[in-house]
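Q&A log
Question type: sequence-to-structure
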Amino acid sequence: MENPTYRVILAGSLKEGFARETVVSNLAALFKRDEERIRKLLAGKPVVVRAQLDLETAGKYRKLIERAGAVCRVEPETSASEPDVEAAPAAPRRPPEPTRPHKALAVCSRCGYAATTEQDVLLLRGDCPKCGFVTKGISRGVAAPKRATAVGGPGDAFFSLADEYDPFAGGCHATAKKRVLASLHSFGVFLILFSAMTVLMILLVAPARMVFHQLFQVFFQSAFAVAPIAISLSCIAIVVVIIPLFNDGLTLGQRRAGIGLVFSKEAEAGGPYLSLVLRGAGVALLSLVPGQLVVNAANWLGYWGDWWSEALGMWATAGLSWLIAGVVWSFTPSKLGFVDYCSGTAQIESLQDAPGTVVGALVPLAAGGGFFLFAGVVAPLLLRLAGWQ
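Response status: OK
Response body:
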């Protein structure tokens, strides 16, 4: 029995709460089309944007389109024609030439679709008209053309006929700006959770007469001298593993910055839960292990011995580790970071920058860092100035 196929239909209308121009910009980035063509697709008439998909792939397209702000639905394909739905002009096809046997000029690395004419969309634009796979390097057939792949002039190529193969589906890799914003947002959430867990630990463990002293006079010591590694691991697990379980695999920072996530074939085979756990392990490895090695080495050499120097060493080394990882990422052709390799994922462009993206990404950092500084620095200083020791 042949497996059923489905098509993705853009309804031509907007989701409630989305501005029309914002949706046009988002869909233009998603479909890699000019905004004028997207406006025509949002004229109120249903349009088929993808066809011959399995249900899982069709569902992924629907989520991306709805996240962009447009109304979308998935329907099973039937042989009967439906006059109220017209095919999108995204993937023009030419009838096969009967006078000669077809040779594959290019083959989609995901679904095996073969381009048999030089006018095929797989060659001209770089995305498969069957499954939508977008690749930097496509698998070539025996008759692959030896020609430049620029569209519209030098430097305007949408893909390169290189021998390497990008195993990740879906558009362009996320920009450095979006990755930084997502990281700062996640670090802010980490600080909020770290502060909250420290306060909770004080309330549960400290004697009642010592609670005020622990919270407002020696907060830093309470946070960094008692189980800092355990608290840090718990916060990392919440930020990069538990929250993404209920957020399509994305951290809150990635969602806010407009980053999408795609999985390699190996990650899909292992399942999303394993991928998220490996991501958390990668974050913990980069954040805690180098700092702990530095602290142990310093203690062995007799340089450090108090809690504040060890805490400063841990945090400074963690920041340096992430900075080095970012520099290495900037020189990596694949644009996959250390955590991406650990989890078998790639961060891609999902939506264009929305108004308030930068401010929204920095709010958790300001809130978490602000509380940390108030409880650890400002409050003790004010109490000391007031003569309350």
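Response note: Strands lie at 6-14, 47-53, 70-76, 86-87, 106-107, 114-115, 139-140, 259-263, 345-349.
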